[in-house]
Every structure is written in C-alpha cells, then in structure tokens.
TrEMBL record:
Transmembrane segments: none annotated. This is TPM domain-containing protein. Residues 4-119 form the TPM domain. Pfam families: TPM_phosphatase.
Amino acid sequence: MENAVFTPEQQHQIMEAIREAELATSGEVRLHVEARCPEEDSIQRAIAVFAHLGMHQTREQNGVLFYLAFDDRRFAVIGDKGINDKVPAGFWDSTKDLLRHHFRQGQITEGLCRGITEAGLQLKAFFPRQDDDVNELPDDISFA
C-alpha cells in the first residue's frame, strides 16, 4: 500500500517515538497501518500481522505491535508471549485509552507517538534495556 495516511514528517515523528521508546526497554515496537481491517476482529488481524512481520522472533519474545486500520477507525495493541507471561491483565488498557482519546480528536500521529512512548515506559519495568541490547526489529512503519 502506498502511504496515504502520514506525511513524511509524521512518519519521522512516529519512527522517532519508536526509537525513543526502545531506549528504555529491550522490548521491540512496530506499527502496522492499513486502510481496512480484512477481519471481523482487529485483535485477530493484529495477531496475523504480528506473525507476518516475524515479530515473534525476538530473543525475549517482547515485541509489541500497534495495529491501525485507518479507514475503519480500528486499532489494536498486542504483545508477544514473553510480555503476556509477565504483565498483569489489562496491561495495555492505559495505552489503548490514550490512543482512543487522541484518535477521537483526529490526532492520529500525536496519539501514536504518545501511545508508543507509554508502551516503552510500561515495558521498562518488565524488560529494562540491557547494555548489550540490539535493535532486533526495524523501526519503520509497515504499510499494507
């Protein structure tokens, strides 16, 4: 898909938010954007995209996917098994609330940047960045 959602500057802001979030944690953050969610459930679609992007291949299984179906106005935030095994139920609720708040105001880029920052801060408690940490996944935005 050609990017019709974000300007180059907005893409840069989002990728910077991803890089900044990953400075605090060994967790790996990605954003996937598509116009429409081809499935009934955005969580199920996010799980399929997570697998397609190979996000399960991180050493600590601590990848996080922000999924956005722009035209459908649907999104999801999911973490890999390593995260789900350590964090309490409802761990992503505050991040999703933050996204929802900004999205309702039409602040898509701002919402994503703040949500990604929040995710990095939350993950820091469970997956602090180590001295030998390497960037295991690309920081760019995936478009379909």
